[in-house]
Amino acid sequence: MTWDVAVREYAELGEGPTWDPASGRLLWVDILGSRIHTYAPDTGRRTVMATEQHVGAVKPRVGGGLVVNLRDGVGLYGADGTFSWLVREPVAGRRGNDAAVAPDGALWAGTMRYDERAGGGGLTRIAPDGAAFDVFATEGVTVSNGTGWSPDGKLMYYIDSPTRRIDVCRTEIGPHGQVPVDRRPLAQIEEGAGFPDGLTVDAEGCVWVALWDGGQIRRYTPSGTLDRTIQLPVRRPTACAFGGAALRDLYVSTARVGLERPHPLSGSLLVVADAGQGMPGTAFQG
């Protein structure tokens, strides 16, 4: 499989590509640049919107607008661009990171400390009405990253990057809605291959993961077997997602932060055409 450049950009920390079928656009963020980017493959049209805080993730909302995982909590943009807080819980030295919308329409918002102190992050399930539940409170999280679900919604995949693992959990309905149980390793990234970052799950139930400092996208089967590797020109891919009308093109966000001599394409949005078959996403119900 070969990559191409979808959008040439100089994002410090590009993250979280997400396909919005309602608008026919790909959404992604530059976390440290406090920017939300959009890209329409059919027309090439782009937009860039500034946020008042570092923005870890952006997802579409039902009925239009966006939900954003910011430094101090989760906010909402209406279809007219007006902003309001859904959950505001500022913690000194902490910011929002990757996020995902579950099949039931809840937002799962990750956090991390700027200094990446062990145990300083978390993963919170946020219901459409703003009710929040700390998912891995007893286990601890350092750098909350990729989160996704199997095609039938019965399994959840999760990455806390310093562990070098892709974990898998069963899901069940509890007092706080759908929650993960029986967390266990699905795959371990070997030393020297980078750190697992963002992920997406395809229609066959396989997990695609970006390797920060590894310059690769990897695809793992539901049993945890590595069955595909895509080499990229940049050292720090951050996340991947299927997009386009048929959900067959794999988009990859990248970063240049912390690199003394970044590749000219570091910070750009890359694409691997016809990489596989993605699944339709779910818009946030709030």
Task: Set out the fold topology.
Elements: E1 4-7, E2 14-20, E3 25-30, E4 35-39, E5 46-50, E6 55-60, E7 66-70, E8 73-77, E9 83-88, E10 94-101, E11 107-113, E12 122-126, E13 132-134, E14 144-149, E15 155-160, E16 165-174, E17 177-188, E18 195-201, E19 207-212, E20 216-220, E21 226-231, E22 237-243, E23 249-254, E24 269-272
Antiparallel strand pairs: 1-24, 2-3, 3-4, 4-5, 6-7, 7-8, 8-9, 10-11, 11-12, 12-13, 14-15, 15-16, 16-17, 18-19, 19-20, 20-21, 22-23, 23-24
Task: Sketch the topology as an H/E string, one letter per element.
Answer: EEEEEEEEEEEEEEEEEEEEEEEE
Rg of Cα set: 17 Å
Estimated structural class: mainly beta
Can you give the mean pLDDT? 97
Shape label: globular
Give the termini separation: 38 Å
Number of strands: 24
Please give the largest β-sheet. Answer: 4 strands, antiparallel
Strands of the largest sheet, in order across it?
1-24-23-22
Number of helices: 0
Strand composition percent: over 45%
Please provide a written account of the structure.
The protein is mainly beta. The chain has strands at 4-7, 14-20, 25-30, 35-39, 46-50, 55-60, 66-70, 73-77, 83-88, 94-101, 107-113, 122-126, 132-134, 144-149, 155-160, 165-174, 177-188, 195-201, 207-212, 216-220, 226-231, 237-243, 249-254, 269-272. The chain is built from no helices and 24 strands. The strands form six sheets. Strands 1-24-23-22 form a four-stranded antiparallel sheet, with no helix packed on it. Strands 2-3-4-5 form a four-stranded antiparallel sheet, with no helix packed on it. The chain has a four-stranded antiparallel sheet with strand order 6-7-8-9, with no helix packed on it. Strand 8 (73-77) and strand 9 (83-88) form a beta hairpin. It is globular. The protein starts with a strand and ends in a 14-residue tail after the last strand.
